[in-house]
């Protein structure tokens, strides 16, 4: 009898216990809010930057817009929140944003056993070094014995120590909390070199307006596969982010872009494309989205090739070749998984 009463009391508590926001799926929260909240760097040219006309631009920004198009049917419904390298994973885990798209390298220990998971790789980078030309340093090994500026909480601290130690060379790292502080120190000659991901490093030097004084040393010392992270335990949300990126890659592979998508959709015979663009149902239902999700992504944001070119490629100030970021059909590593 006592046991039954205890059970009833427990049941009552469970029934009337308010459901905390975190117990809701990320998809439900985003839908309820009518807006996607994305955690970004905010000062990374090519990835996430508030430009001169106060518009967000960059590869990571466009990934956020694509997810908003997939989930809410509107690529504009995104709020961007800036976050430092050091705090990014904890703030994602704490629910400060739905998605972290902050030029974040995927490593085993950032994902396995942590409260966050990477969803997909959207850019492959590597750690590079920039030096003042007047120092006449020509290769990485010549940096031995110098001080090198970097940002706290990045993969660069470990890579730097590892590369120089493996060659029995010594360097002194000078680690800064923010990107701005790191570049200020470098421009004030408080270190001989600055190190970061090659793409954002090139972008920052160009933006400084002093590119003529500096040079990037040849070679990179690490693999920096960058990608968005989501909270652990919400596989539906992880799937949405992953397949949104893959839909943009698939669009590139199939030559689909915002200009031709409507005429293509009107006369679709190919069963694969019918499923991809939601003429035939299946993908949307599996993800918990409308069947139009990939159509909305491609028509409102575009395909990966276009996004690459305007943010980091030939249509941008950075002018990075596609290299390993080319599609697998063109000798690169970008390989969309079957969207069906
Ligand atoms: N991919 C690296 C580095 C990410 C990062 O925070 N990079 C900073 C600088 S080291 C950045 O890109 N800031 C913008 C810039 O360099 O302009 C990681 O995930 O740890």
Short description:
The protein has 340 residues and is an alpha/beta fold. Helices cover 38% and strands 16% of the residues.
Protein topology:
Layout lengths: L1 H15 L9 H8 L2 E5 L2 E2 L3 E3 L5 E2 L1 H14 L5 E5 L5 H6 L5 E2 L7 H4 L4 E3 L4 E3 L1 E6 L14 E5 L4 H11 L5 E5 L2 H9 L5 E5 H10 L6 E3 L7 E3 L2 E3 L3 H19 L7 H6 L4 H6 L6 H5 L5 H8 L3 H8 L29
Parallel strand pairs: 1-5, 1-6, 10-11, 10-12
Antiparallel strand pairs: 2-3, 3-4, 7-15, 8-14, 9-12, 9-13
Helix pairs in contact: 3-9, 3-13, 9-13
The protein binds glutathione.
Percent of sequence in beta strands: 15-25%
* Hetero ligands: glutathione
Under CATH at level 1, the class of the largest domain stands as Alpha Beta
Low-confidence stretches: 13-19
Total tally of structural domains? 2
Mean pLDDT: 94
Q: List the quaternary state of the chains.
A: single chain
Can you say what the CATH homologous superfamily of the largest domain is? Periplasmic binding protein-like II
**What is the terminal-to-terminal distance?**
55 Å
Number of strand segments? 15
Helicity range of the residues?
A: 25-40%
User: Strands of the largest sheet, in order across it?
Assistant: 11-10-12-9-13
Topology-level CATH name of the largest domain:
D-Maltodextrin-Binding Protein, domain 2
Radius of gyration using CA atoms only: 23 Å
- What CATH architecture of the largest domain do you see? 3-Layer(aba) Sandwich
Q: What is the overall silhouette? A: globular
Order of helices and strands: HHEEEEHEHEHEEEEHEHEHEEEHHHHHH
Question: How would you explain this protein's 3D organization?
Answer:
The chain is globular, with a radius of gyration of 23 Å. The chain has 14 helices and 15 strands. A hairpin with a 5-residue loop joins strand 3 (48-50) and strand 4 (56-57). The chain is 38% helix and 16% strand. The protein has helices at residues 2-16, 26-33, 59-72, 88-93, 108-111, 156-166, 179-187, 198-207, 235-253, 261-266, 271-276, 283-287, 293-300, 304-311, and strands at residues 36-40, 43-44, 48-50, 56-57, 78-82, 99-100, 116-118, 123-125, 127-132, 147-151, 172-176, 193-197, 214-216, 224-226, 229-231. The strands form five sheets. A five-stranded mixed beta sheet has the order 11-10-12-9-13, sandwiched between helices. A three-stranded parallel beta sheet has the order 5-1-6. It is α/β, with parallel strands linked by helices and 340 residues long. It folds into two domains: 24-124 and 226-330, Periplasmic binding protein-like II (D-Maltodextrin-Binding Protein, domain 2), CATH 3.40.190.10; 127-222, D-Maltodextrin-Binding Protein, domain 2 (3-Layer(aba) Sandwich), CATH 3.40.190.10. Glutathione is lined by residues 41, 43-44, 85, 103-105, 151, 154-156, 179, 196-197, 200-201, 203-204, 224, 226.
């Amino acid at each position: 009898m006592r046991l039954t009463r205890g059970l009833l009391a427990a049941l009552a508590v469970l029934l009337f216990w308010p459901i905390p926001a975190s117990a809701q799926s990320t998809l439900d929260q985003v839908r309820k809010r009518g807006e996607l909240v994305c955690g970004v760097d905010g000062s990374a040219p090519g990835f996430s930057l508030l430009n001169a006309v106060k518009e967000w631009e960059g590869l990571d920004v466009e990934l956020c817009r694509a997810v908003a198009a997939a989930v809410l049917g509107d690529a504009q419904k995104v709020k961007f929140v800036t976050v430092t390298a050091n705090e990014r994973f904890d703030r994602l885990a704490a629910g400060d944003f739905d998605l972290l798209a902050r030029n974040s390298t995927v490593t085993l220990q950032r994902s396995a056993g942590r409260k966050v998971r990477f969803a997909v790789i959207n850019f492959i980078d590597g750690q590079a070094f920039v030096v003042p030309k007047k120092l006449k340093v020509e290769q990485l090994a010549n940096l031995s014995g110098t001080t090198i500026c970097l940002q706290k909480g990045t993969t660069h601290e470990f890579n730097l120590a590892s590369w120089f130690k493996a060659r029995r060379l010594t360097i002194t790292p000078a680690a800064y909390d923010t990107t701005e502080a790191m570049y200020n120190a470098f421009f004030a000659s408080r270190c001989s070199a600055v190190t970061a991901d090659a793409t954002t490093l090139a972008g920052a030097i160009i933006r400084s307006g002093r590119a003529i004084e500096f040079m990037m040393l040849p070679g990179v010392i690490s693999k920096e596969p960058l990608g968005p992270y989501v909270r652990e335990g919400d596989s539906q949300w992880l799937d949405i982010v992953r397949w949104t990126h893959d839909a943009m890659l698939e669009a590139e592979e199939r030559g689909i872009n915002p200009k031709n998508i409507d005429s293509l959709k009107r006369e679709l015979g190919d069963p694969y494309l019918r499923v991809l663009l939601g003429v035939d149902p299946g993908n949307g239902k599996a993800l918990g989205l409308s069947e139009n999700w990939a159509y909305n992504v491609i028509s409102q944001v575009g395909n990966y090739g276009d996004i690459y070119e305007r943010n980091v490629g030939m249509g941008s100030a950075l002018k990075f070749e596609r290299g390993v970021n080319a599609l697998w059909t063109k000798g690169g590593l970008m390989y969309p998984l079957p969207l069906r």
